Amino acid sequence: MDRLCTPWRFAYVTGENKEEGCVFCNRVTGDEKKHFVLHRGEHWYMLLNLYPYNSGHILLVLNRHQPLLGQCTPEELAEMGQLLSVMEAALTESFHPDGINCGYNGGSSAGAGIPEHLHMHMLPRWTGDTNFMSTIGETRVMPQTLDQAYERLLPVVQRLVADRS
Ligand SMILES: [Zn+2]
User: Fold this and answer.
1) CA–CA separation, 146 vs 2, rounded Å?
2) CA of 122 to the centre of ligand 1 (A)
């Protein structure tokens, strides 16, 4: 039951969905809607996890390919804090969860699906939410909710980012 404690350990991409190169580098630019990108900052971008633990599972991905918080610049860390606070506010407003998890995995032994490219997880939690949701392998597949979560979160994230800039 370690998923109760570390839901962000689940991989962004499973073995059946391999693509050329690094999936996070591949999404630094490109079609926002296609990849469920909610916001592009100066140093980070925000997108829905394709294999969410819960509806509203958001990733914050560093624009450059490096693995650790300790290798971030002060500017990158400052923007990370700003965007994590936007994510928390957006999840609270959009989903009214009972709680929120935020975390990251440094290195593959900590459970990172893509350990070489730094990304933070944040997701809403509800009392009892681990009891009824099915799992498939190591990922929870809820494709029908991705579009709904994106449409709900996008205007909220855009407004919160604008309000704080
Ligand atoms: Zn990368």
Assistant:
1) 25
2) 19
pLDDT tens-digit profile, the chain (165 residues): 334 444 444 444 444 456 788 999 999 999 999 999 999 999 999 999 887 777 888 999 999 999 999 999 999 999 999 999 999 999 999 999 999 999 888 776 666 678 899 999 998 888 777 644 444 344 454 545 788 899 999 999 999 999 987
pTM reported for the whole predicted model: 0.82
Neighbours of ion ligand 1 (CB under 5 A): 22, 24-25, 65, 117
Q: For the CA atoms of the chain, what is the radius of gyration?
A: 15
Helix (H, G, I), strand (E, B) or coil at 121: strand
State how far Cα 127 lies from the chain centre.
21
Taking the mean position of all CA atoms in its chain, how far away is CA 82?
Answer: 15
Closest CA to 39 of 113, 74, 90: 90
CA 66 to chain centre: 17
C-alpha of residue 103 to centroid of ligand 1, in Å? 19
State the DSSP code for 138.
T
